[in-house]
Amino acid sequence: MECKKGFEMVQGLECIEGEWIYQTPICKPTEAKDCGSKPLDVIFVVDQSASVGPDNFSKMINSIVEFTSSSLVVDPTTVNVGFIAVAFRSIDVIHLLNDQNDVLKEIGLFEMDQGSSVTFKDSFNEAIYDFNENGRSEVPNVMILLAGGKSTDNPQPNANVAKESGVDIFTIGIGQSVDKAELREMASVPSKARFVDTFDEIGEALDDLLNDLC
């Protein structure tokens, strides 16, 4: 497995116990995109409900890993990355990390804890906690929420609290089961909500966010 021209393999992450931990090689640019001028604390929130399913969940994970490795400069002074996976009565957290290899390994190895439905409400509370406890006070806080279904509760009050605390919220709706109005309302402004038809298009949506992030 090789990287395309202009990229190189992230060292030490290709194999674990003889098996590839990603569907594609994880590559980083030999010359990183200029996100270094704007340090960020970024938390990805993903839907791990039955409406997503294991195969599509893996596509979400791979898209986040590829985006993080190729488009974000993860280090103590630039971008720090966290991860939250949510379903009904289930929330799993990887707190903000400042080492790219650690981020790619922790997210890439994450296993789906599937729930019957999804509730986004608690993800906002958890993100605020992580930003406060593990984030940097002088750095903008960004939350990128990926949804494959509609929330079974009302997440808006919690989303509003996150916005009022200074969190910049982007949402990505995938497929036909999402509530577009809900995702536009959860986003900081409606224009920060993106929608794609399939899980294969998540990478394109994340790339589209890059100009807003950088």
TrEMBL record:
The keyword Disulfide bond applies. Residues 41-213 form the VWFA domain. Residues 1-29 form the Sushi domain. Pfam families: VWA. Keywords: Disulfide bond, Sushi. This is VWFA domain-containing protein.
